[in-house]
Design a protein that fits this description.
Layout lengths: L2 H25 L6 H17 L23 E3 L9 E2 L2 H15 L8 E8 L2 E8 L2 E7 L5 E3 L2 H5 L16 E10 L1 H7 L6 H9 L4 H6 L2 E12 L6 H10 L9 E4 L1 H14 L7 E8 L2 H7 L1 E2 L2 E2 L2 E5 L3 E14 L5 E12 L2 E7 L3 H7 L6 E6 L6 E5 L24 E6 L4 E8 L7 H12 L11 H9 L14 H5 L6 H13 L2 E3 H7 L7 H11 L2 H9 L14 H11 L2 H13 L1 E3 L14 E5 L7 H10 L3 E2 L9 E4 L5 H9 L3 E4 H7 L5
The chain binds 2-(butylsulfanyl)adenosine.
2-(butylsulfanyl)adenosine (IVH) binds next to strand 3, strand 8 and strand 13.
Length: about 675
């Protein structure tokens, strides 16, 4: 090869590395596998070694990471931007509606009316208007805090800058999706993997003039904070949006009944390819705002809405290798490294094989030709093997019985509830003792839902762990910045940014703190329940450390499995050491109760029997919303026993004996200034 050809090849590879880095650090997205990325880097380094005339300031030999193009100002959303739960089929959808019926204590032939809206696969944004003027636009960010991308959003023609209608609220956050139409994407498709990435990249341009060059669109569908908006339903809101000059989706519908939702889903899925922007499913929202309010939320998503995804795309590929990944909880997950294929616009080179049983059931082997499926944001997986294509000398895949990272024994837990052995094999090491588990635990610790340390992405965690700069979570708060400054790719500015991001997160809520510890079976929802119950970090440490946690079973949602897991976590010496050290550097903020002075302040309640027209779950949430507390046994601490139809006699008698007030549904609702 001629010198200039080699140079060209070399520069092309560096450009690719830069692009992948940019996706990784700016957009939190891996568009190739770690293995492929390392391979590409190695190729560049080898070329440099071979031809000493090859030099470039962006080479991985000079540069470890990537400095994001611009640090946009972070601003808190006045109301969080939530996400949606997913369903993939009719059964899941029926279950979603059943939960709504149960929560609202509704019975057939009642019907729920849904606002049915195509789910655009773009980037959501929240636009703040004051006195009709577009003042500020934020990206979703982590849902609580977004980036100020006002100037870039101003370049979008679909976004009205001034609204003069009399019925436009004094203040409102209009929310919707920024996206790029397929025909416009065609012209820039060499630069981005898909239209969604193109929209995201364009929105985060440093210079809004560059954003203006890419024709972005905006479709509005909901609102956040608002002052003086008087409407009763989503469909009414969508009509208003149109009258105020926003673009709304032409396929929005009002539909009742799951069978009609499914028919509409089928219909739109057929039309999908004819629509000039990508939609990856349909969003169903309970249309009536009163019902939405009653239904409320679970952690990050509303109970009153769901996304019904379109069926997956699939392709055929070859299994080149099967790697065993070790996850945060020690789970050994087999991953098929497949020959890269384009599935629905995304290049896929990894597919999960789930677990050992799945490999055995499908008899998946290295070298097999397989069908790989990819649905929405779900990790691609192997559907089936084409046995006709299998080579005669192919060998059965033997799953390792020792942890590939630390060599410890692996086991399959026995599940007390199902009375079966788990399908997942786990490393028996206790956590930080296994290198791979440890790295995953640190990634979890700094992740968005936990400490949310800006600019501390997965690659950096891996790098710092490799270099032994970080072994345990507390090391993050005592980093040797002088040493980091000397690492390739780091400089004064990037180090000072990192230090700032870390220092900023030394104050943390109890709920996030508990979640960040990565205790098995304690996800976001359970961490929230524990924090709410325990209220202060002192309490958390005291109770858990001394094993006095059996009363946590009284928390709705916390069971034996969670208690066992917490006990196990606190019986580990390294975990205790981590907690001790974290206590020294962090300020853990106690739980502040939202509505402290509601009508049921300082009052405790217990329910027995069936209530009329309201479910248990809604009754409990109503009590809590009004500052009351639910307790689970009749004792001295109980103020009111609420009785419905067929109450438990023993509870009523006990309450009578203890002189506890016994109220029926009507009397209870009167306490809330409500009548049934
Ligand atoms: S409503 C609580 N409506 O889907 C309501 N979202 O997974 C949350 N999206 O972040 C949003 N089309 O980016 C809503 N018609 C639509 C939507 C939509 C697309 C996106 C949005 C959101 C994500 C939720």
């Amino acid at each position: 090869m001629k010198q200039n050809e080699i140079k060209k090849k070399y520069l092309k590879k560096i450009k690719l590395i830069q692009k992948y880095n940019q996706f990784y650090y700016d957009k939190n997205k891996s568009i190739i596998t770690d293995h492929e990325f390392d391979f590409l880097k190695r190729e560049v380094l080898e070329l440099e070694k071979k031809y000493n005339y090859l030099k470039n300031k962006n080479s991985p030999s000079k540069n470890v990471g990537y400095i994001p193009s611009k640090n946009f100002k972070k601003i808190k959303h006045k109301k969080p931007m939530l996400s949606l739960g997913n369903v993939f089929n009719e059964a899941d959808l029926l279950n979603f509606e059943k939960k709504i019926f149960n929560f609202l204590s509704l019975k057939k032939p009642n019907e729920i009316e849904y606002s049915v809206e195509p789910k655009i696969d773009g980037i959501s944004a929240s636009l703040f208007y004051k006195n009709g003027k577009f003042i500020q636009g934020l990206s979703r960010g982590d849902g609580k805090e977004g980036e100020d991308i006002t100037e870039n959003l101003k370049t979008i023609k679909d976004i009205p800058k001034n609204i003069v209608n009399k019925d436009f609220p004094l203040e409102i956050d209009i929310r919707g999706e920024v996206f790029i139409q397929n025909k416009d994407f065609d012209e820039i498709k060499d630069k981005f993997a898909n239209p969604r990435n193109a929209a995201s990249g364009s929105l985060r341009q440093k210079d809004s003039k560059s954003t203006g060059k890419i024709p972005l669109k905006f479709i509005a569908y909901t609102f956040g904070y608002t002052k003086e908006l008087n409407i009763n339903s989503q469909s009414e809101f969508l009509k208003k949006l149109k009258s105020w000059g926003f673009r709304v989706n032409q396929f929005n519908r009002l539909i009742k009944g799951v069978n009609n939702l499914v028919a509409n889903h089928k219909d739109l899925e057929m039309k999908r390819n004819k629509i000039d922007f990508n939609i990856d499913g349909i969003v169903y929202k309970v249309n009536n705002f009163d019902l939405q309010k009653r239904l409320g939320f679970v952690t990050n998503a509303p109970r009153w809405a769901i996304a019904h995804k379109f069926s997956a795309n699939s392709s055929i590929s070859k299994i080149m290798n099967i790697e065993i990944q070790v996850g945060r909880t020690g789970a050994l997950t087999p991953v098929a490294k497949i020959k890269p294929v384009n599935i629905g616009g995304v290049i896929v080179s990894n597919a999960t094989l789930h677990n050992e049983d799945e490999i055995n059931r499908k008899d998946i082997r290295i070298g097999d030709i397989v069908i790989v499926e990819r649905a929405g944001d779900v990790i691609p997986h192997v559907i089936s093997v084409d046995l006709k294509e299998r080579k005669r000398d192919s060998k059965k895949f033997i799953f390792p019985i020792n942890c590939p990272s630390c060599g410890s024994k692996t086991i399959k837990d026995y599940n007390e509830t199902t009375k079966k052995q788990d399908a997942i094999r786990r490393c028996t090491s206790e956590g930080y003792e296994c290198e791979k588990i440890s790295v995953e635990k640190i990634k979890h610790f700094v992740s968005r839902e936990a400490f949310n340390i800006d600019g501390f992405g997965k690659k950096i965690v891996e790098n710092f762990c490799n270099l032994k700069l970080v072994k345990l979570p507390q090391d993050i708060f005592r980093l040797d910045y002088e040493k980091i400054k000397k690492l390739e790719g780091w400089g004064d500015l990037s180090v000072s940014n990192l230090k700032h991001s870390i220092d900023e997160k030394k104050i943390i809520s109890l709920e996030r703190f508990i979640y960040s510890l990565g205790i098995r079976h304690i996800g976001q929802e359970n961490a929230k329940l524990l924090a709410k119950h325990l209220k202060s970090s002192d309490n958390f440490f005291k109770q858990c450390q001394n094993g006095q946690i059996n009363d946590l079973v009284n928390i709705d949602g916390i069971g034996e499995t969670q208690i066992k897991s917490i006990k196990k976590f606190f019986s580990n010496k390294t975990n205790l050491e981590v907690l001790d050290e974290l206590k020294k550097v962090l300020k853990i903020v106690n739980v502040i109760q939202n509505n402290k002075n509601g009508l049921l302040k300082n009052k405790t309640f217990m329910l027995t029997g069936k209530l009329n027209g309201i479910s248990r779950a809604e009754a409990k949430s109503l009590i809590e919303k009004n500052s009351g507390k639910i307790i689970s046994n009749v004792g001295k601490k109980l103020d009111y026993l609420i009785i419905g139809e067929k109450p438990t006699t023993k509870k009523v008698n006990n309450a009578k004996e203890l002189n506890i007030k016994i109220v029926n549904q009507e009397q209870w609702l009167k306490l809330l200034n409500k009548t049934s």
